[in-house]
Write a structure and sequence with these properties.
484 residues; alpha/beta; Amidase signature (AS) enzymes; eleven-stranded mixed beta sheet; 16 helices; binds glutamine
Length: 484
C-alpha cells in the first residue's frame, strides 16, 4: 500500500475495517511523518507513547468487532483543549507547565469514539492572532512554503499545517473570529466552525467566551462531517451548550443542491478585492448554479462595523477571562516579594505582546467612562449584525463569501507586523459569523497566481451545518482542488 497517511479519514476507516493495515501501523506512520517534519513546528507536545497505547486498544477492538465510530483515527489536538495528564499550554509561557487533571468535553467525545491523540498542536498565544506568530513556542511553517517560509494562518495554524502535511488524519481547532476557517484556507484544508453552542466549551482555554467555538480541520468536507459528529452535542458542563439533537452530518454529503438558494452579500464585493479571490468567488457561483442552486444578491449593511465590533468585544472578554492567570493557582509564577509584584512580574513575563495588547484594550473598553462609548455600543452593533444575517436568510439558505482577502504571507512580514491593525483587517470575512453565532465552513477552492491555496466560505443558518456540508461537498467535487 502506498502512503497510508495520505488517506482521508473516511478512506482510513474503511481500510482499518478491511484490515488493510492496523491502527498501530497507521499511528507509527504518522509518528514517523511528525519526526521528519519537526521543522514545521506544528506540534508543541508530542505524545507518541500514549498514541501507541491507544492504537493497541483500537487494534484489539477491531479484532473483536468492538470498533467505535472513529476507532484508530490518529488526530492532532489544538493545544487549547485541556487533555488529562497531557501538558496544555495555550501556546503561552504562563501555562507552559500546566498539566490538566481533566479532559475537555470535545476531546473526551473524540476519545470515547475511539480516536487516537498524537499530540498537542501549536497556535497563536491564547488563540489571539491570525498567523501563528504570537505563539511562545515559535511560528509554524505553512507546508505550502517554497522559497520563503510562509505563515499557516491562525490561530489554529498548527492544526491546519499538520493536516496539510499529513502529520495527523484530522485536527481540532477553535474559532473565535476565524481561527478554524482562515488557517484552513491558507493551508488548503477544510474546516468548519459550527453554530455557537453546538460543541461544548468545557475544558477549552477561554479567549472570548461568547464567540469561542470548537470545530474540526480536515482534508475534505466528509472528514469534517465525521469529526464534527463526534465533537458536537449537548453538555451540562457548559451552560451555553444547546440541547438540540445532532443530525447525521454524513448523510448530507453528496445530496442534490438544486433549488438551494445561495446569497451573495453585495457589501463584500469591494473595488480593491484581490483579482484571484474575485475570480474564484465568481467561479464558485457558476459551479453552484450549474448544479441548480439559485443565486441571490443579499445585503449585510452593517458589515463595515464588524471588525471594530469584534476588536472591542473579543478583547473585553479576553481581559476578563485572562484575569485568572495570576501565578498563584497554576501555571508559571514570576518572582515577587509581595503579592502585588508577584502578580505584576508573573503577568509581565508570562504573557506575550499581543496578549498584553488585548488585555489593555479590553480593560480600557470595560472601564468606567468608556464602557458606554465602546463596549455597550459594540454590543448593540453585534445585535444589528445578527439581524442583518437573519434578514438575509429570509431570502437564501446559505451565504457564499471568500474566507480571507489574501493568501498565506511570509513569516515576519513587515506590513503585517508593523501595525496590528493590518493583521486584524484579514479577518474581515470571518468575524461577523462569530458575532452572529452562525456556522460556517471554509473549503479550498483553487490556487492563486502565486501558487497558494484560496478558500471559499459557506455560512449557514443557526444549526444548519448539514446544509453547509451539502453545498460544500458539491463545490468540492466540482472545484477539483489538489491537496499536497
Ligand atoms: N484572528 C482573530 C483574532 O486575532 C481570530 C482569532 C480566533 O478566532 N481565535 O482575534
Amino acid at each position: 500500500m502506498s502512503d497510508i497517511t495520505k488517506l482521508t479519514i473516511h478512506e482510513t476507516l474503511a481500510a482499518l475495517k478491511n484490515k488493510d493495515f492496523s491502527a498501530s501501523e497507521l499511528t507509527r506512520a504518522y509518528l514517523s511523518n511528525m519526526e521528519k517534519s519537526k521543522h514545521l513546528n506544528a506540534y508543541i507536545t508530542e505524545c507518541g507513547e500514549y498514541a501507541l497505547e491507544q492504537a493497541q486498544e483500537s487494534d484489539d477492538n477491531y479484532l473483536h468487532g468492538n470498533n467505535r465510530k472513529l476507532e484508530g483515527i490518529p488526530l492532532g489536538i489544538k493545544d487549547l483543549f485541556c487533555t488529562k495528564n497531557i501538558r496544555t499550554t495555550a501556546a503561552s509561557h504562563i501555562l507552559d507547565n500546566f498539566i490538566p487533571p481533566y479532559e475537555s468535553t470535545v476531546t473526551s467525545n473524540l476519545l470515547n469514539d475511539g480516536a487516537i491523540f498524537l499530540g498537542k498542536l501549536n497556535l497563536d498565544e491564547f488563540a489571539m492572532g491570525g498567523s501563528n506568530e504570537t505563539s511562545y513556542f515559535g511560528p509554524v511553517i505553512n507546508p505550502w512554503s517554497k522559497n520563503v517560509e510562509l505563515v499557516p494562518g491562525g490561530s489554529s495554524g498548527g492544526s491546519a499545517a499538520a493536516v496539510a502535511a499529513h502529520l495527523c488524519a484530522g485536527a481540532t481547532g477553535t474559532d473565535t473570529g476565524g481561527s478554524i476557517r482562515q488557517p484552513a484556507a491558507f493551508c488548503g484544508c477544510t474546516g468548519i466552525k459550527p453554530t455557537y453552542g453546538r460543541c461544548s466549551r468545557y475544558g477549552i482555554v477561554a479567549f472570548a467566551s461568547s464567540l469561542d467555538q470548537a470545530g474540526p480541520i480536515a482534508q475534505d468536507v466528509r472528514d469534517c462531517a465525521i469529526l464534527l459528529q463526534s465533537m458536537a452535542g449537548f453538555d451540562n458542563k457548559d451552560s451555553t451548550s444547546c440541547d438540540i439533537a445532532v443530525p447525521d452530518y454524513e448523510k448530507f454529503i453528496g445530496k442534490d443542491i438544486s433549488g438551494l438558494k445561495i446569497g451573495i452579500p453585495k457589501e463584500y464585493r469591494s473595488e480593491d478585492l484581490n483579482e484571484d479571490v474575485n475570480k474564484y468567488w465568481q467561479m464558485s457561483v457558476e459551479l453552484l448554479q450549474k448544479r441548480g442552486a439559485v443565486i441571490k444578491e443579499v445585503s449585510l449593511p452593517h458589515t463595515k462595523y464588524a471588525l471594530p465590533t469584534y476588536y472591542v468585544l473579543a478583547p473585553a472578554e479576553a481581559s476578563s477571562n485572562l484575569a485568572r492567570y495570576d501565578g498563584i493557582r497554576y501555571g508559571y509564577r514570576g518572582e515577587g516579594e509581595h503579592l502585588d509584584n508577584l502578580y505584576i512580574n508573573t503577568r509581565t513575563t508570562g504573557f506575550g505582546k499581543e496578549v498584553k495588547r488585548r488585555i489593555m484594550i479590553g480593560t480600557y473598553v470595560l472601564s468606567a467612562g468608556y464602557y458606554d462609548a465602546y463596549y455597550l455600543k459594540a454590543q448593540k452593533m453585534r445585535r444589528l449584525i445578527y439581524n442583518d444575517f437573519m434578514d438575509a436568510f429570509k431570502d437564501c439558505d446559505l451565504i457564499l463569501t471568500p474566507t480571507s482577502p489574501i493568501t498565506a504571507f511570509p513569516i515576519g512580514d513587515a506590513h503585517m507586523l508593523s501595525n496590528p491593525i493590518n493583521m486584524y483587517l484579514n479577518d474581515i470575512y470571518t468575524v461577523s459569523v462569530n458575532l452572529a453565532g452562525l456556522p460556517a465552513l471554509s473549503l479550498p477552492i483553487g490556487l492563486a497566481q502565486n501558487g497558494l491555496p484560496l478558500g471559499m466560505q459557506l455560512i449557514g443558518k443557526p444549526f444548519a451545518e448539514g446544509t453547509i456540508f451539502q453545498a460544500a461537498s458539491a463545490l468540492e467535487e466540482d472545484a477539483h482542488f489538489e491537496r499536497i
